[in-house]
Amino acid sequence: MPAETATALPRPPARTASAPVLTGAQAVVRSLELLGVTDVFGLPGGAILPVYDPLMDTSEIRHILVRHEQGAGHAAEGYAAASNRIGVAIATSGPGATNLVTAIADAYMDSVPLVCITGQVFSTLMGTDAFQEADIVGITMPITKHSFLVKDAEDIPGAIAAAFEVASTGRPGPVLVDITKDAQQAEAPFVWPPKIDLPGYRPVTKAHGKQIQAAAQLIAEAKKPVLYVGGGIIRARASEELLSLAESTGAPVVTTLMARGAFPDSHEQHLGMPGMHGTVPAVLALQEADLLITLGARFDDRVTGKAALFAPQAKVIHVDIDPAEISKIRTADVPIVGDLKDVLVDLDAAFRGAIEGARPDISEWWSFLDGLRSEFPLGYAPTSDGLLAPQYVIQRIGELTGPEGVYAAGVGQHQMWAAQFIKYERPNAWLNSGGAGTMGYAVPAAMGAKVAEPERTVWAIDGDGCFQMTNQELATCAINNIPIKVAIINNSSLGMVRQWQTLFYDGRYSHTNLNTGHGSIRIPDFVKLAEAYGCLAIRVEKEEDVDAAIKTALETNDRPVVIDFVVSADAMVWPMVPQGVSNSYVQYARDHSPAFGEQED
């Protein structure tokens, strides 16, 4: 359904004598119960207050009171991304609803199934600039799969049920349900299940057989194929099917930032992450390929570099549940619209049939790629100022926690290092803001993930800049017994911006010093701040203390833990492809590129 069509649903079936009469607010809570919701994140206010009254009575739904609505949205995202369930956030009208916008946009970019329920002013007051009125349906139209405006109590069950259907089917994404206060207060028979009428919304899940056969034939004929894997594999829960196809074809696999964990890092066919900060083998494999088998990826600019110069010799198979993504940036030679979980099973079978037992010989291709792996392994240089190397800190967090942990990152250098230096062996272990690049994502997303997966160790790997945007949710964690671990990679600056200023602006550090780390006035002092929020707080400034601090965090489960890792501000993320050029210009260190092929402007 187009985002531009925000509508009220048709009336549910006719009233029956047996249907209980509930207020609209009670209908909201009862609908969530019947849809299997067990956890919601929210913050009350006047226009949503009627819903909060019956929320107090339910024993089936845990409401977690956040300290900011953006935290509710990101927590619901983390909940969904870690568990494959739908995240739910609740807010009031006006600024409460607009505070959700960043999280909604984030979920839209990263295809996260999210339902946001907002209160709206009385329907009789809409359009009058009433107190705390905002046209949240209009505001969110471009960043939701669909938005519902509900003005009648009897429409509430249908709207909420439809929201869950839209959020979780096809390409997942956020859906908004905006309910006027008079609809919440009015009474109506509660009819369940409601009639869901979504004209035009029919996601295609089964791919066309001829396209599958054509794709299989291309794979069988390819000399330099690459499985280009995007986050759609994780959303489709298709990691097992991907592994089977990869092993059938023997082709190398690259996993984008959103797909980390979709294919095991330890697998011999995995080349790592492609893109601006991808591994040299992954970046150059795509550049040199003669066939891209693109699975749930969208040819994002951070992967392709200058799109016109990306993988210039490659034919493209593009599989996606969303037909709008096919040929949007790169024309597909074989477009396949369908659910990846089903498509991969069919494609695997078709490939096996096409090769009749004799797998294509791509040994020359692997010889080239193995040479790249040997010559350009992922690594980092020691710091020159005696401060901690952030890569080492993050690597040790991953090694000591293990693959069953969940790692949520903010945005910037620490995000890239966390994607590079933690080994991901399973889907849903890596949570980050990929498309939107939202600073402040990590702490609330980790909180949501811990609620969804309470038995797992959950880390928020955050920068000192990101942490200051949403650290108030530490109060939520402490009060609600949500013992996340937070690693602040504290370089006292907006690190990625500083890196670009170093490389492209002659070291002119305009407004990127945050004064939180080594040699600064330390405002705020993260240890004191964390202690004020009821957390165990540790500061680490020496490499020999890193492991002990991480182990203490892993052993502490009665409260959140915050570790202030004081790292070097001069550390940079490598490899790197400068923006706006061919990926052939990938640098594995400053001013060091592989001697590779013909490079064009």
UniProtKB/TrEMBL annotation:
Record CDD domains: TPP_AHAS, TPP_PYR_POX_like
Signal peptide segment: none
Pfam families documented for this protein: TPP_enzyme_C (PF02775), TPP_enzyme_M (PF00205), TPP_enzyme_N (PF02776)
Organism: Microbacterium aurantiacum
PANTHER family assigned: ACETOLACTATE SYNTHASE CATALYTIC SUBUNIT, MITOCHONDRIAL, THIAMINE PYROPHOSPHATE ENZYMES
NCBIfam families named among the record's database cross-references: acolac_lg (TIGR00118), PRK07789.1 (NF005860)
Record's protein name: Acetolactate synthase
Domain Thiamine pyrophosphate enzyme central residues, every copy: 212-347
Cofactor note: Binds 1 Mg(2+) ion per subunit.
Domain Thiamine pyrophosphate enzyme TPP-binding: 410-565
